[in-house]
Amino acid sequence: MIVPVYSANGEVLLWDDPNPWRETWQNVPSHGLVPLRVPVGDLTDLSLVNARIALSGDVASLQELAEHHNAGASLVTVATLEGSAAARQLKVSSTRYTQGNAESLPDRTFSVQGDQPSPELLQQAATEVAQDMEIAWRQGTTVMGSPRRPRAASSCRRHRWRTGYGYVACSTRCHRSSA
Questions:
Q1: Distant-in-sequence, close-in-space partners of 147: CB < 8 Å, separation ≥ 6
Q2: Same domain, yes or no: 120 and 60
Q3: What pLDDT score was predicted for residue 178?
Q4: To which H or E segment does residue 2 belong?
């Protein structure tokens, strides 16, 4: 579940309108294994998490919001417009929160032409963050075999990843080992 915070000109926006970062995330297609959902900002959302709570990384509140939306994790992604009119940048930092854990994704910086980021630039930034999230999820997830089976090593020859659980996570889905 995506929690998109937008910071510009001294304002920090989450559920407020307009929030161009939230509007962009509502239009990012979910092509990978990780579904992308953006809360609508209804009264329950407003009561669970505000911009200050999202920025502070309050794991309990973010987990409660995720559970309210039947999601296993929250991604707080903060787009901050910085700099003067001559050298504006959009800095994007994102942290994925799952049941007590926080994992930072790579920070991204984009050059902004004009006073505000264009919809195309925001779309590019959101797409890159979504790809980072997909990569982080793949690297942190392996499908485990039955706990009664011996943990024989297996490998995916195409991607050369090894695991002791009988499955290998890779970019072409999971390959079942012959063990």
A1: none
A2: yes
A3: 39
A4: strand 2-8
Q: What is the pLDDT of residue 114?
A: 87
Q: Say how far apart CA 125 and CA 127 lie, in whole Å.
A: 5
Give CA separation, 25 vs 30, 67, 76, 92, in Å. Answer: 10, 20, 12, 13
- Residue 20: how many other CB atoms lie within 10 Å: 19
Residues 91 and 173 in one domain: no
pLDDT at residue number 2? 96
* Domain count across the chain: 2
What CATH number is attached to the domain comprising 115? Answer: 3.40.50
H/E run at residue 167: strand 167-170
Three-state DSSP class for residue 152: coil
Cα 61 to Cα 58: distance, rounded to the nearest angstrom: 6
Q: For 110-166, how does the pLDDT look when each residue is reduced to its tens digit (9 = 90+)? A: 999 988 999 999 999 999 999 998 888 787 653 333 333 333 333 444 443 343 433
Range(s) of the domain holding residue 166:
142-179
Following DSSP, what letter does each residue of 104-115 receive, concatenated?
Answer: EPPPEEEE--SS
104 lies in the same domain as 159? no
Are both 73 and 129 inside the same structural domain? yes
Q: Are residues 128 and 159 in the same domain?
A: no
CA distance 49 to 12: 13
Q: What distance in Å separates the CA atoms of residue 49 and residue 56, rounded to the nearest whole number?
A: 11
